[in-house]
Write a structure and sequence with these properties.
Blueprint: E1 8-13, H1 19-31, E2 35-40, H2 42-47, H3 50-57, H4 68-73, H5 76-82, E3 85-91, H6 93-101, H7 107-114, E4 119-123, H8 127-131, H9 133-144, E5 148-149, E6 153-156, E7 162-166, H10 170-181, E8 191-196, E9 201-204, E10 207-209, H11 216-227, E11 231-236, E12 247-251, H12 255-266, E13 271-274, E14 281-283, E15 304-306, H13 310-315, E16 323-330, H14 334-344, E17 349-354, E18 366-373, E19 376-384, H15 385-400
Parallel strand pairs: 1-2, 1-3, 3-4, 4-5, 8-11, 8-13, 11-12, 13-16, 16-17
Antiparallel strand pairs: 6-7, 9-10, 14-15, 17-18, 18-19
This protein binds ligand PMT.
Ligand PMT binds near residues 197, 213, 310, 327 and 353.
Amino acid sequence: MSSLAHKRILLGVSGGIAAYKSADLVRRLQDRGATVRVVMTAGAQEFVKPLTFQALSGNPVHTDLLDPAAEAAMGHIELAKWADAILIAPASASVMARLAAGMADDLLSTLCLASEAPLVLAPAMNQAMWLHPATQANTQTLLSRNVTLLGPDAGSQACGDVGPGRMLEPLDIVEGLIDAIAPEQMLEGKKVTITAGPTREALDPVRYLSNHSSGKMGFAIAAAAARAGAEVTLIAGPVRLATPAGVHRVDVVSTDEMLAAAEQAADDCDLFIAAAAVVDFRPKVVADQKIKKEDGNDSDVLSLVKNPDIVATIAGRTSKRPFVVGFAAETEKVAEHAKGKLARKNLDMIVANDVSDPEGGFNSDRNQVVVIDRDGEQPLPAALKTELATQLVALIAARAFPDT
Ligand code: PMT
């Protein structure tokens, strides 16, 4: 049976050149068994005529909140209740801002406010608009309300700019929608612990050692594992990200705190995934007062000691040992160094990450990795971390729990 069989999808189309791709999206949704009704904003109608969507969906297109004839046929509250999911593609910066603010000033925003169905957005906008702090803040607000974001993709844009903001291709949107509203429950009944983000080691009351990890990779894995049915504990270093839906989050700062939280979670855990970028060394002594440059501190000011290795500690357990997956952030001989870590840390699997690639690694929305275990290697090509996380979770689940 198709994975969207009997699903009623309300497709919102907002103003943007990518609206032409949404015509094909209607067909791709129907191919997977969905019934589609389309709502267009005023902006969308400047790019594509409602008749196009009416012909493709086989249903009248909804455009106005205050149209008595349309309300008599299927009122907006009825429409909001009809939907099993609302998919907005393209979702413009303006639509995202209005949804984040909870506005109900046109049919689409009103439907989103009136519906209890899952909301999935495929953003599409100019790269500067996407990167603007206002859009990024709206994105975090929407994520914190369990809205799913598919994309945006990066590349050359209709306006001539190059960067993030392109709408995903229709087939990728359909796959993302299925994953969001009807995912395969590969981790049902499993307890999964994930570490994410950096750790931070104090030097004195005002300074610390850390790294550029944003937590995006680990948070995306936590979200994907929760969608796959797992009970997820996410141990997060200091990052500014919204907690994914259905995930239990434990905030930590230092490596010792992350280790203690990991040990506690691992006592009752089937799968441990270490995506955190743990600071390898910490100051031997943390100064009580701010270290002064006037105090003859000209060189050799810091003396460092090695931090405990969290993932190796969990993998070294003789009892209550979960299936353990590490990451390897490498800048050269990526697979070779990752294999060394797989063996040295006694891991079951390692995700090798070339962090010298400017398109991936630390603080990027995208990544590309090679998954390595004792049976071989599987490259996962460059993709958004959110998409890569879904693929990783499927791969890890198949290896860790082959019989389920
Ligand atoms: O957070 P993002 O901005 O999204 O970036 C993602 C990422 C690049 C941080 C992530 O994909 C990644 O590669 N994480 C591992 C980073 C790292 O510290 O790699 P490593 O090669 O130094 O460590 C190997 C493994 O040991 C990792 O699983 C790490 O979590 C673990 N480790 C390392 C040191 C330590 N003291 N304790 C550990 O558990």
